Amino acid sequence: MSIFNPGDKLTMEIKELERNGTTITASLEGRMDALSAPEFSRQMDAWIESGLEKLAIECSRLDYISSAGLRAILITAKKLRARSGSLRLAALQENVRTVFTISGFDKIIPIAATLADAVKEQR
Amino acid sequence: MAPDQISLPAELDNLPRFIAFAADQARRQGFTPQRVQEIELAIEEALVNVMEYAYPGKSGTLILLTGPAPPGQLTFEIRDRGETFNPLDRNTPDLQSDLMERPVGGLGIFLIKTLADELSWQRQGSENCLTIGFTERHVH
Prior knowledge:
The complex is a heterodimer. Helices cover 37% and strands 28% of the residues of chain A. In chain A, strands 1, 2, 3, 4, 5 and 6 form a six-stranded mixed β-sheet that branches. Chain A contains four helices and six strands, in the order E-E-H-E-E-H-E-H-E-H. By secondary structure, chain B is of the alpha+beta class. At the A-B interface, helix 2 and helix 3 of A face helix 1, helix 2 and helix 3 of B.
């Protein structure tokens, strides 16, 4: 089922799960669309300003992504790469993964099966 | 019978209401949940594009409407009274280059072209009319 409710506004949520120096693991939930993507970008910029270099995001509860979300992820990945860090995603739902595949993002953003795998690959 | 359309100011804050309308129409036509979400995505990309370009520096209205269709089919029209602008007149984005060389943007129209089964644009009098049709199928 589509999870959309007309009463919802910003239904995206990003949570910091663990921070270890310049490494953060986080989770991303809900709908990442043109309305909510700027909130993601603001959070990323705040983390990058506080020294973030390596980021792994668990996406098993990310239900929807549009090109605005892809753009925010691409910009973040470029900023982290420029600091010799990286952005990795984990546990994408099938429909979200399809959007990554169509857009060719699966070739530039490493996607792991689980968050533990993403963290392992990042070391 | 109430017309199957929604007309609101062309502002990003209204995106959820437009998308709720589109999803509702798609469900009513019996599309699978997966296809409903693909329809939501294509319609979001089209609306956001029109919102960005139709009324530069001023306000205006967007109309999203559907016509009668047999089950498993659905055609939307997006109408605005802004300047003449064909959003489909766009090259295929770069999907190949490495992370640091990959351009930011240009994916929205490409997603619509991938997800929709019918797509056309016309200037009709003082209106831009973008037509986007869907059938039940799996894109991937």
